[in-house]
Design goal:
The chain is an alpha+beta fold and about 260 residues long. It is built from seven helices and twelve strands. Strand 7 and strand 8 form a beta hairpin. The two termini are about 35 Å apart. Keywords: DNA-binding, Transcription, Transcription regulation. It holds the Pfam family GntR. One of its GO terms (molecular function) is DNA binding.
């Protein structure tokens, strides 16, 4: 695999060098017209997304990877710094760099942004109301990029904070990937992203969210103990993998009596 090498003195890319294999593994083809460390980042990300380095696996050393791509260790380290910042890899003191895993606490607090009005965080407890396999709606097909007659797994659950029902969630997944999730495991874990990664090889790398104000309907009133028409926050999330492919559509309706949604920018 060859990539263009950037020359800072004349602001040009030199002729592509010849790629050397690391551990007999060939890096996938990547883009060439962007900063060199960005090219390296994309190439590393492709190898992680392809499963070449599964979650929890230590990747080759910085020196070995730099030699593989015929770049300086500084350039390679800058690419890894961005992957660390994106929570794709983690550095282990004295051990090296490993592909990140979704342990329960990390997954929960990275993607769960509901706090009490005074800012206090607490662990949610999930109670599953239903699980079923059914035909996808148009909205679900568009969000998950599915074919016209695709099936989905639909999970509905209530999440409680401090013993109080706070969120009503509808979670939708592609049945082709998560076929047995309609019935297995018998008890779903509190943090589903860890299950997706460990059991199905689907790693949630990031998510797109949209928040809107809505009025409580009959289902909200029944499961959250709110009044009909009471204001709620609806959080629509599409969770995606390293290559931006949709994994999950989640619509959560949050009661705002004691809790709010928070985001640190």
């Amino acid at each position: 695999m060859a990539i263009a090498r950037y020359n800072s003195q004349n602001d040009t890319f030199a002729s592509p060098p010849i790629h050397k294999d690391v551990d007999s593994m060939t890096a996938p083809k990547g883009p060439t017209f962007q900063p060199l460390y960005k090219q390296i980042k994309d190439l590393l990300l492709e190898r992680i997304a392809s499963g070449e380095w599964p979650p929890g696996t230590f990747i080759p050393s910085e020196a070995a990877l730099a030699a593989s791509y015929n770049v300086s260790v500084g350039t390679l380290r800058k690419a890894l710094d961005e992957l660390v910042s994106d929570s794709v890899v983690v550095r282990r003191q004295g051990k090296g760099t490993a592909v990140a895993t979704h342990d329960a606490d990390r997954a929960l607090f990275r993607f769960f942004n509901v706090v009490r009005r005074d800012g206090e965080r607490s662990l949610p407890v999930s109670r599953v109301l239903s699980r079923q396999r059914r035909r996808a709606t148009t909205v679900e097909r568009d969000a998950l990029e599915l074919s016209d007659r695709a099936d989905v797994i639909h999970i509905r659950r209530v999440r409680e904070l401090a013993g109080s029902p706070t969120l009503l969630e509808d979670i939708v997944l592609d049945a082709a990937t998560f076929a047995d999730l309609a019935s297995q495991p018998e008890i779903l874990p509190n943090t589903l992203y860890q299950l997706y990664q460990h059991q199905y090889g689907a790693t949630v790398a990031h998510a797109d969210e949209r928040l809107v104000a809505v009025k409580a309907g009959e289902q909200d009133a029944a499961h959250l103990g709110v009044e009909l028409g009471e204001p709620l926050i609806e959080i629509r999330r599409v969770a995606r993998d390293y290559q931006d492919t949709p994994i999950e559509l989640r619509v959560s309706r949050l009661t705002t009596r004691e809790y709010c949604y928070t985001s640190r920018l």
